[in-house]
Amino acid sequence: MFVSFEGIDGSGKTTQAELLVKRLADEGRDVLALREPGGTELGERIRELLLDGPAMSPWAEASLFAAARAELVAEVIRPAIDRGAVVVCDRYVDSSLAYQGVARGLGVERVLELNLAATGGLLPDRTFVLLLAPKDARRTTNDRIEREDAEFVRRVDDGYRRLVTMFPERCVAIDASRAPDAIAEEVRRELA
Ligand code: TYD
């Protein structure tokens, strides 16, 4: 099984990914926790370029995220799924669709096409999209992309809301304004 968590920065998705990983591990499952971009040697180096590097054009940015993802799928995710593990990813393709496709204006369809090529068509079984009004987000880090202005975050949020309606079978909209325990319980019920 392959599960991803998505949302704007400060939506609480990382907390939820960690809570799910802990619960599955406590149940004795073979579970693998991953974050994007990163998770491989190449991916970590691409991560530095993306989050700490120079300004870049939108397609360069989308292509670097896709390159890191291609490596992660080939080296880590597919082998884990093949051995029967549960893979929990903090961000995956939908981050590129919301940030690069919508907020950077490249188009959801074209960014999806790039990512389907990069991942061999691998999409999660379930994607939890944590929806939270940008004004309520608890922003923590301050990387190159997170330094974008409030209007950019509003577009990312808008992107995630569109993705939930575009992919209703895979994406589950989660009201992220509630307590972490209540959200974790909803995630548990959904996966049961
Ligand atoms: P991440 O390290 O997950 O930050 P956070 O702690 O906020 O979750 O991601 C770093 C930034 O990269 C974040 O602002 C979202 C952005 N991003 C994209 O723009 N496209 C992508 O495909 C991914 C995976 C992340």
Explained architecture:
The chain is globular. It has a five-stranded parallel β-sheet with strand order 2-3-1-4-5, sandwiched between helices. It is α/β, with parallel strands linked by helices. Helices cover 54% and strands 14% of the residues.
Outline of this structure?
The protein is an alpha/beta fold. Helix content is 54%, strand content 14%. Helix 3 runs antiparallel to helix 4 (93-103) and helix 3 crosses helix 5 (108-119).
Task: Looking at this protein, list some descriptive labels.
192 residues, 14% strand, Rossmann fold, alpha/beta, 54% helix, binds thymidine-5'-diphosphate, 5 strands, five-stranded parallel sheet
- Average of per-residue pLDDT values: 96
List the quaternary state of the chains: single chain
Identify low-pLDDT runs: none
Trace the largest sheet across and list its strands: 2-3-1-4-5
Report the radius of gyration as a whole number of Å: 16 Å
Whole-Å distance between the termini?
A: 12 Å
Strand content: 5-15%
Q: What's the count of strands?
A: 5
Q: Tell me which CATH architecture applies here.
A: 3-Layer(aba) Sandwich
Structurally, the number of domains stands at 1
Largest sheet: 5 strands, parallel
Order of helices and strands: EHEHHEHHEHEH
Helix content: 40-55%
The number of distinct helices, counting runs of at least 4 residues, comes to 7
CATH superfamily: P-loop containing nucleotide triphosphate hydrolases
CATH class: Alpha Beta
Fold topology:
Layout (H helix, E strand, L loop, with lengths): L1 E6 L5 H14 L4 E5 L5 H12 L5 H25 L3 E5 L2 H11 L4 H12 L6 E6 L18 H17 L4 E5 L4 H12 L1
Parallel strand pairs: 1-3, 1-4, 2-3, 4-5
The structure holds thymidine-5'-diphosphate (TYD).
Thymidine-5'-diphosphate binds next to helix 4.
